[in-house]
Amino acid sequence: MNVLLMAYGTPYGPEDLEPYYTDIRRGKKPPHELLEELQGRYEAIGKSPLNEITLVQAIRLQALLNLEAPPYPRRLQGPFPPRAPQGPARVYVGTKHWLPSIGEAVAAMHEDGVRRAVAIVAAPHYSLRSVAEYKEKVEQALKGLPDPIEMVWVESYEAHPGLIACYARRVEEAIWRLREPKKAAFVFTAHSIPVAAVERGDPYPRQVEKTAELVAKRLGLPRFSVAYQSAGRTPEPWLGPDINEHLRALKEEGYEEVVVTAVGFPADHLEVFYDLDLEAQATAQEVGLRLLRTRSLNADLDYIQVLKDLVEAAWLRS
Ligand SMILES: C=CC1=C(C)c2cc3[nH]c(cc4nc(cc5[nH]c(cc1n2)c(C)c5CCC(=O)O)C(CCC(=O)O)=C4C)c(C)c3C=C
Ligand SMILES: [Fe+2]
Ligand SMILES: [Fe+2]
User: From ligand 3's centre to the CA of 17, what distance in Å?
Assistant: First the structure.
């Protein structure tokens, strides 16, 4: 079984920042003020562990796939159907905006003789501004190859019971730390997208709401809400409510404590450490709210098990 595991990617050092930002802006260099602002955000968090987490996710996913399907030599395999999940599993990593790029990963797969693979993004929700763009990059990379690779896509997994259990477990950990759990607010966040994408029928907000609703249901939370974070630095309107405005509104409604879970981001990175742990935390402190941010899924085995389940099911799809 072959897997292409994709994630957003983050710069390895300050010298990578400009080409990284240029890639996010589809080849347009960022103005100096925006680059400086991004540099300031990276300096404030120290380091984004996103690339390391993605690599560990891939290593663990590959190990887990092979653990339950030992890589027997071909002659011992018997009459398995060629698409059975058994056999050596290989997981390749490609990042959308940095290195290894999706193009490099696809080229490596081709070089290794891969002709069929499952493509999955380490983010549970489909958006025209996320998964659709990953797909474009994969298709672009495939175009340049002498032999085709059939990619079976996992486009979204917003309601996977294992994923819901992962988030519920982490919200539960925060509930233990609340002073008055029955009076707390529970907020689920995801990356904002331009309103224009929503108007074009992007299923993203519905999927984010679905994840939030299922986690809340599993925990029997009486109230919960969805807010968006990390809106881009572009003049167009972005989907709200923004987490900072939402925290102010919650305080006005009389809440004293809030648990925030970033359901759109399985892994820690700039927008968890800066936008939630520094910026939203500062807003909460300013208005007098106690904010607890739940632990990310990262490369924890409960999340890797979800990825394993998804790729195995996709591999068996015709
Ligand atoms: C659902 C959409 C998006 C997800 C998920 C997402 C995750 C994500 N983003 C960064 C870092 C940056 N994103 C930036 C801009 C940007 N991001 C999205 C969409 C998603 N990002 C869009 C549509 C844009 C705007 C692009 C443009 O046209 O300019 C930037 C640039 C600075 C900024 O605008 O804030 C950074 C940096 C990470 C690390 C991440 C998840 C891992
Ligand atoms: Fe982004
Ligand atoms: Fe972003």
Answer: 14
Rounded distance from Cα 65 to ligand 3 centre (Å): 31
Dihedral sign computed on CA atoms, order 156, 273, 167, 11: positive
Nearest to 80 by CA among 68, 91, 90, 69: 69
Q: Please list all protein residues whose beta carbon sits less than 5 angstroms from ligand 3, which is an ion.
A: 230
Q: Residue 138 corresponds to which tokens in the numbers above?
A: 């994969």
* Of 16, 18, 24, best ligand 1 pocket probe by most atoms within 8 Å of the beta carbon: 24
Which residues on adjacent β-strands are paired with residue 94? 6
Which DSSP letter does residue 89 get? -
Rounded to 5°, the CA angle 96-100-105 comes to: 85
Nearest CA to 216 out of 254, 259, 265, 177 is that of 259
Partner residues linked to 190 by β-bridges: 228
Q: How far is CA 282 from the centre of its chain?
A: 24
Identify the pLDDT of residue 232. 95
Question: For residue 85, what pLDDT is reported?
Answer: 47
What percent of the chain is predicted at pLDDT more than 90?
91
Write the ipTM: 0.91
Residue 70 Cα to ligand 1 midpoint, Å, equals 39
Per-residue pLDDT at 275:
98
Does pLDDT of 71 surpass 90? no
- Among the residues of 50-202, which ranges form H helices? 50-68, 102-111, 131-143, 161-176, 195-199
All structural domains of the chain: 2-157+301-315 (3.40.50.1400), 161-293 (3.40.50.1400)
Helix boundaries (H) for the chain? 17-24, 32-45, 50-68, 102-111, 131-143, 161-176, 195-199, 204-219, 243-252, 270-273, 281-287, 301-316
Distance spanning both ends of the chain, measured CA to CA = 14
- pLDDT by residue (tens digit) across 162-183? 999 999 999 999 999 999 999 9
Global pTM? Answer: 0.94
